[in-house]
């Protein structure tokens, strides 16, 4: 019974019903797949639309904020008294999340403050003054000044905060430097100066140059602040150097070269002090007689008038930019003392080699090179302000310079290497001679040690390592200028310079030959070195034989030698050197009575500069010389004179050159843009081809899996 029921309960499908059922299931699966594809396309389309709308809304919002910044800024500049409260809105815009809006807001506030800040220092009213009844105009002025001062303080605080962030560092520093340059007289100058000086030795070249230019402008334009900001800046820089132990970038010391000091201030001081006591005595006598004759009421009135006058004078001095002579003299003396204190600290630090070596890593962090980065700037400053140094410190200064020049290394048996370069030691010698020249009447110092140093440093100089212009300046300061030298010393330097000219480059050789010729012209007896006797010159000093290894020029015996180097220099590849050597050799037949008539006009630095320019224009022509090539006539080198180069430069139309360069770089930009677009097009085409290949392979796999079916729905093998 049960078997029969089971057989009748299970309905068997026919072939047609099975075929319809399979078709129906396939149709439903296809519809589901199409629905999923449509849903994914709709989702992707909606995401793209949302992103586009978001970008458009962000751009519109950015444009609206920019327009609002411009509107508020223009309104403030046109009528600052009526729209002074709009500064708060600009400050709020600077708190925006968009960094570009914050930068635009900072620059807008900078332009507004530079335009509306008054030309005086704002003093807020005291509590006693606020209790007094004033007019409506005074109340409006007080409201305007207090709002301006409060907004300016908030702006500076925001700049100081943003200066610590990498994103806004450049903008914040630029704003602070511009404010310090434009309004150094205004309130909160101390905060501006402190932050600018803090970045004066930054490793970032842009930030460091901005800060140095702002400080230089402050030193040059003292009329804007009366010199008070100069004193504050110099003190801050001195503290900055002390805090960093003299390991700063040289640019931080070069700003001192822009300082100026009054030379005739001491004369006016003595005259004013003679006149003022007489006037004060007359006034005191008149006031005493009036007080005796007047009544008590008059005394009270006079005391009130004197007190009021003192208060008015104090307020006038507080807002005035032009201090009196005594105040200016005091500020300049304090500025000068701070400058020399910094210079002497650098010299003292440079004299300690162990301390300088331990700080080499700190110098690398500041972007400077060498263990003594500030020494060169310090020596330049001492050379410029040497006439202002107090004579009490002159002996110590000369001792420091002598030690830094390395004099003890040769005569105290020191075997350790000098930690200063040859150029730095030459600069020490130059500064010593400048100090001596500027204080010639008050000093009686023997400079023999510095001549010894120059004599030995000529052998240590290397053109590829040391600065040739410093050597040329040393030759000018120590040998070319000044009085006539001792005959032994002059002969020693003449011989050493001839040897030097034979060993180094054209520019250094020309500077040495110019100095050599000048010494021969001023010291006629040294022309015996030009003789070609077998036993040397006809004159000889205490030393009969020439000793080239001697460290002291007075003990070298150079008068017993001859200048045989000139015969080799006359065949120099550079025509300028060969002609100069020939000119010096011809001085042997010059009349000694005319030794002061034909002195050289070109100084060693000028000769070095001219040969440096000529060396750039001195280029070989033609093909390289081969070993098997026959000797050909003609010149292998050509020299283009600077005059011809100047003529060619004058004939060039700068506008035409600029136009052609613009066209050239525009073509290059177009080529780069075309390459970029072509690359994107190729990438898109390859993606389309890959997608088509993927669809074709997918279709093939589908047909291979399902196979072909007949009309009854059966699979055909």
From TrEMBL:
The CCAAT-binding factor domain, residue ranges? 426-581
Q: Which GO terms describe its cellular component?
A: nucleolus
Query: Compositional bias (Basic and acidic residues) spans?
Result: 708-717
Matching Pfam families, A to Z?
Answer: CBF, NOC3p
User: Which domain of life does the UniProt lineage start with?
Assistant: Eukaryota
Gene Ontology terms: biological process: DNA replication initiation
Q: Which UniProt keywords apply?
A: Coiled coil, Nucleus
For the region Disordered, give the residue spans: 268-300, 697-717
Signal peptide start-end: none
MF terms in GO: chromatin binding
Q: What is its subcellular localisation?
A: Nucleus, Nucleolus
Q: Which InterPro entries match?
A: ARM-type_fold, CCAAT-binding_factor, Noc3_N, Nucleolar_cplx-assoc_3
Query: Where does this chain mainly localize?
Result: nucleus
Question: Domain named Nucleolar complex-associated protein 3 N-terminal: which ranges?
Answer: 65-155
Which family is this protein grouped under?
Belongs to the CBF/MAK21 family.
The identity of this protein, by name, is Nucleolar complex protein 3 homolog isoform X3
Q: Which gene encodes it?
A: LOC105061082
